[in-house]
């Protein structure tokens, strides 16, 4: 079974939500809210690629998807429903704008106009900063192809525009997903 336009995916570990944590060998639920986007599963396993697709993604690869792909919603009568991406059972449709990165042969690759930046700790200065991360600065980890063509590579220190951070956890590290136009300065 293939779709003409969409990737067909399953949520990783068969779970729509990543709302549990391991604390001393005991798995505990850390959030019971289906509304909180922070606990929506964002990892998807590719089951099928679109008809005629000739890109690098193959069945079995992993995608980082939008938080709404697997979420449940309540309709106007309070009934629990699946979102627009739901196909059947544990299968979902994902288009090219709903995934931001894919894992190919163990390496993450940014998709399309998206890139991922790791925040950095505050830089020691004479000015007191009441936070743990330097605002509007980070280390480029997964640049888009366009950013690479402009000389911005993984490991480069960059500055980005305000309110462009969309938080993810990649390889157990906090990352910000951004659009390539959100990157403003190569430092």
Tell me what the structure shows.
The chain has about 190 residues and is mainly beta. The chain has 2 domains: about 5-110, no CATH class; about 110-185, 10 Kd Chaperonin, Protein Cpn10, Chain O, CATH 2.30.33. It has one helix at about 145-150; strands spanning about 5-10, 20-25, 25-30, 45-50, 60-65, 70-75, 80, 85-90, 90-95, 100-105, 105-110, 115-120, 135-140, 155-160, 165-170, 175-180, 185. The strands form 4 sheets. The protein has a 7-stranded antiparallel β-sheet with strand order 8-9-1-4-5-10-11, with no helix packed on it. The radius of gyration is 18 Å and the shape is globular. The relative contact order is 0.14.
What does the average pLDDT come to? 92
Termini separation:
48 Å
Total DSSP helices: 1
Order of helices and strands: EEEEEEEEEEEEEHEEEE
Which regions are unreliable across 5 or more consecutive residues at pLDDT < 50? none
Whole-number tally of structural domains = 2
Tell me the overall shape. Answer: globular
Structural class: mainly beta
Tell me the Rg in angstroms.
18 Å
Helical fraction equals under 10%
Beta strand count:
17
**Proportion in β-strands:** 35-45%
Main sheet specs: 7 strands, antiparallel
What topology, given as strand order, has the largest sheet? 8-9-1-4-5-10-11
């Amino acid at each position: 079974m293939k779709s003409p336009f969409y990737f067909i995916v399953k949520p990783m570990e068969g779970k729509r939500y990543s709302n549990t944590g391991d604390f001393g060998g005991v798995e505990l639920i850390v959030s019971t809210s289906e509304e909180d986007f922070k606990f929506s599963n964002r990892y998807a396993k590719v089951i099928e690629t679109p008809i005629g697709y000739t890109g690098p993604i193959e069945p079995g690869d992993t995608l980082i998807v939008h938080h709404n792909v697997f979420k449940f919603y309540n309709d106007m009568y309070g009934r629990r429903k699946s979102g627009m991406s739901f196909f059947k059972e544990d299968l979902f449709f994902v288009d090219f704008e709903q995934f931001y990165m894919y894992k190919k042969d163990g390496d993450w690759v940014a998709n399309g106009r998206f890139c991922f930046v790791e925040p950095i700790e505050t830089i020691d200065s004479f000015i007191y900063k009441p936070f743990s991360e330097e605002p509007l600065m980070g280390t480029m980890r997964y640049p888009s192809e366009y950013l690479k063509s402009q000389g911005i590579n993984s490991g480069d220190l960059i500055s980005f525009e305000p309110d462009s951070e969309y938080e993810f956890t990649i390889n157990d590290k906090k990352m910000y997903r951004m659009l390539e136009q959100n990157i403003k300065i190569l430092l």
